[in-house]
């Protein structure tokens, strides 16, 4: 049986928790490298991308990732940019309202995917400044990989 999706309240709490004091190009590189290392530990066939203000600062595709993963990253990241929340939270909000993201908002699914794996890069007292995204696993696993990497980076002194 698949794990249940976190609630909107739980996902909102993650976003409140996972905020940086600042976010630099070096932070993007470190976060991207941490995600690649975590993915390699479990041989996850993922693509990873970190952007800030529309500037791609880190991009990698591990063994088994496909060109489709880049498209998923674009579509999930577009959701984060439009709504300011993780792609999983946006999709879950629709599910909790008894509908789907696609039915509720009518956005082109070729451009928007409210599936887990893209998370806003939040700077405390500033707001979203970019997006970190993973694609290649089931959406909840993509999301959890990103959240784990963010928690680990933020826990560093």
Give a short overview.
By secondary structure, the chain is α+β, with helices and mostly antiparallel strands. Helices cover 48% and strands 19% of the residues. A hairpin with a 2-residue loop joins strand 2 (47-52) and strand 3 (55-61).
Description:
The chain starts with 7 loop residues before the first helix and ends with a helix. Helices cover 48% and strands 19% of the residues. A hairpin with a 2-residue loop joins strand 2 (47-52) and strand 3 (55-61). The mean pLDDT is 96. It is globular, with a radius of gyration of 14 Å. By secondary structure, it is an alpha+beta fold. The protein has a single domain (8-155), classed as Beta-Lactamase (2-Layer Sandwich), CATH 3.30.450. It has a five-stranded mixed sheet with strand order 1-4-5-2-3. 39% of the residues are buried. It has helices at residues 8-17, 25-41, 67-83, 87-96, 101-105, 139-155, and strands at residues 19-20, 47-52, 55-61, 118-123, 127-135.
Integer-rounded radius of gyration: 14 Å
What is the CATH-assigned architecture?
2-Layer Sandwich
Described by strand count, sense and barrel closure, the largest sheet is:
5 strands, mixed
Portion in helices: 40-55%
List the uncertain runs: none
Large-scale geometry:
globular
Order of helices and strands: HEHEEHHHEEH
CATH superfamily: Haem-degrading domain
Mean of residue pLDDT?
96
Distance N to C terminus? 38 Å
Q: Total number of helical segments?
A: 6
CATH class identity: Alpha Beta
In terms of structural class, how would the helical and strand content be classed? alpha+beta
* Strands in their spatial order, largest beta sheet: 1-4-5-2-3
- Overall number of strands: 5
CATH topology: the name is Beta-Lactamase
């Amino acid at each position: 049986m698949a794990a249940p999706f976190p609630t909107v309240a739980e996902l909102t709490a993650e976003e409140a928790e996972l905020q940086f004091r600042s976010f630099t190009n070096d932070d993007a590189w470190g976060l991207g490298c941490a995600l690649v290392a975590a993915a390699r530990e479990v041989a996850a066939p993922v693509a990873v991308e970190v952007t800030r203000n529309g500037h791609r600062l880190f991009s990698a595709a591990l063994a088994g990732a496909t060109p489709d993963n880049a498209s998923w990253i674009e579509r999930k990241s577009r959701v984060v940019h439009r709504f300011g929340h993780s792609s999983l939270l946006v999709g879950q909000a629709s599910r909790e309202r008894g509908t789907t993201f696609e039915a509720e908002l009518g956005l082109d699914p070729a451009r928007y995917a409210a599936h887990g794996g893209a998370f806003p890069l939040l700077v405390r007292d500033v707001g979203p400044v970019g997006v970190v995204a993973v694609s290649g696993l089931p959406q909840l696993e993509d999301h959890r990989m990103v959240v784990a990497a963010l928690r680990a980076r933020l826990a560093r002194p």
